[in-house]
Amino acid sequence: MSHHLSPYMQFNRQEWASLRNAVPMTLTAKDLLSLQGINEDLSIDEVSEIYLPLSRLLNYYISNNLSRQVILSKFLGKRHKTPYIIGIAGSVAVGKSTTARVLQALLTRWPEHRKVALVTTDGFLYPNQYLEKHGLMNKKGFPQSYDIKKLLKFVTDVKSGQSDVKAPVYSHLVYDIVDGEEINIDHPDILILEGLNVLQGTANCAQATNRVFISDYVDFSIYVDAEIPLLHDWYVNRFLKFRAGAFIDPNSYFHHYSQLPEQEALAIANRVWRDINELNLVENILPTRERASLILTKKQDHKVDSVQLRK
């Protein structure tokens, strides 16, 4: 597709970095260590060249949204405030969580001191007991493995300005919903919603009622993209790092993988990628990419190489 026919404006890394426009760096090297994922090094360059221009753009959008709310409040004769929802989608192992954490840190530190909440849609997966009962353990992360009605109710409640909205908590260690544990979301200025399914619509979700989707409540959406061979490598590398780290914990759902010979563990990681994660990516996640407001495309070393912004 030629660029002038594309719904997106295209920027290479240098062009995008120039749009930072002297926005000050508010994160330290120590901050970055706490924000990066297990599988990637997050550099100051990446934050200053990619995420600072993005936070500047988002700040404009959010300010504009607040101005519209003021107008609506005047029209209605009563206070009207709804949080600005940013959705972050993309494949397993692409670095969505890191993108979400960096944006939360940057947006929180803007002079306006906005309250920024972060929720992952993993918390809305059905518990393992339900997935096992319905033969869905090998479809975890696929649309049918999520309690979409519960997720839609959560997003609707937050967007309608309700206080103390509860979100369930998912543990990657026990690979399940943590019973009795919840995150409390109370009138944030911004909600970052991160997950595989943030941009999915009818084709991906048989449970959707009245053709209402999570993306209907999202004000700005980001798709973190990379070529499939890179994603495969990142997934396997992450698996092996977990095997040498978190999987050693006897409480880990995947503890038995830490006891296997490396070649056997490697074969399992490759099979899980091919039969579950790549299949889900091709069937359900990748088709949502062109619905995003902005696409961050990564190359080697998790570095963003280009940015596409919807016109």
Helix and strand arrangement:
Layout: E1 8-12, H1 13-17, H2 29-35, H3 44-76, E2 84-90, H4 96-108, E3 116-120, H5 128-133, H6 148-159, E4 165-171, E5 176-185, E6 190-194, E7 220-225, H7 228-244, H8 255-258, H9 262-285, E8 294-298, E9 304-310
Parallel strand pairs: 2-6, 2-7, 3-6, 7-8
Antiparallel strand pairs: 1-9, 4-5, 8-9
How would you describe what is shown here?
- It is built from nine helices and nine strands.
- The protein is globular.
- The mean pLDDT is 89.
- The strands form two sheets. Strands 1-9-8-7-2-6-3 form a seven-stranded mixed beta sheet. Strands 4-5 form a two-stranded antiparallel ribbon.
- Helix content is 39%, strand content 18%.
- The chain has 311 residues and is α/β, with parallel strands linked by helices.
- The protein has helices spanning 13-17, 29-35, 44-76, 96-108, 128-133, 148-159, 228-244, 255-258, 262-285; strands spanning 8-12, 84-90, 116-120, 165-171, 176-185, 190-194, 220-225, 294-298, 304-310.
- The two termini are 15 Å apart.
Please summarize the sheet with the most strands.
7 strands, mixed
> Given the structure, what is the number of helices?
9
Give me the secondary-structure category.
Answer: alpha/beta
Which segments are poorly predicted (pLDDT under 50) over 5 or more consecutive residues? none
Q: Roughly what is the average pLDDT, rounded to an integer?
A: 89
Helix content: 25-40%
| Helix and strand run | EHHHEHEHHEEEEHHHEE
The radius of gyration over CA amounts to 20 Å
Number of strands: 9
Strand arrangement within the widest β-sheet reads: 1-9-8-7-2-6-3
Distance between the termini: 15 Å
Global morphology = globular
Strand content bin: 15-25%
